[in-house]
Amino acid sequence: MAQFENTNLIATSTDSQFANSDHPIIKNKEARAGYLMDISKLKTYVSENLDYPLQAQNNSVEGEVIARLVINEIGKVKSVKIVEGLGFGCDRTVLQMLSEMPDWKPFLRDGKPIAKTLFITINFKMQ
């Protein structure tokens, strides 16, 4: 049996560097204002919509996939890319799942919608 654990999320402005955070959950007010789901809902979405690839299971592959995506000004998921991959079908599976994620409430800066870059870590672990 496979499981997913420790789904983490970091939000940064598209014009800033990667967030410096001890806790990989959204840290700044700007990000928090736009986050549609709390982290438990994100974990539920991942567990319900991401299959552990058979190739990874057959090869006992475990580890993490880190993806970067942009939530645009109207809340659509765009530009999903793998920052750190695992192979064995895991990267492709994460890309597909994130690309199909429901729309988000747009992030706001001074009351105006902005694009926001998010980093999401998915840990694959055999059980």
CATH homologous superfamily assignment:
TonB
Q: What's the shape?
A: elongated
Head-to-tail CA distance between termini: 5 Å
Structural class: alpha+beta
List the total number of helices.
4
- What's the total count of β strands? 6
* Percent helix range: 25-40%
CATH top-level class: Alpha Beta
Radius of gyration: 15 Å
By CATH, the architecture is named 2-Layer Sandwich
Low-confidence stretches: 12-28, 31-35
Tell me the series of helices and strands, N- to C-terminal. Answer: EHHHEEHEEE
What share of the residues does DSSP label as strand, in percent? 35-45%
CATH topology (fold) name = TolA/TonB C-terminal domain
Largest sheet: 4 strands, antiparallel
SSE topology:
Blueprint: E1 2-13, H1 29-34, H2 39-49, H3 54-58, E2 63-71, E3 77-84, H4 90-99, E4 107-109, E5 112-114, E6 116-126
Antiparallel strand pairs: 1-6, 2-3, 2-6, 4-5
Structural write-up:
With 127 residues, this protein is of the alpha+beta class. The protein has one domain: TonB (TolA/TonB C-terminal domain). Helix content is 25%, strand content 36%. It contains 4 helices and 6 strands; from the N terminus they run βαααββαβββ. A 4-stranded antiparallel sheet has the order 1-6-2-3, with helices on one face. Strands 4-5 form a two-stranded antiparallel sheet. β4 and β5 (112-114) form a beta hairpin. The chain is elongated. Mean pLDDT is 77; it is low at 12-28 and 31-35.
Question: What brief labels describe this structure?
Answer:
alpha+beta; 127 residues; two-stranded antiparallel ribbon; 4 helices; 6 strands; four-stranded antiparallel sheet; TolA/TonB C-terminal domain
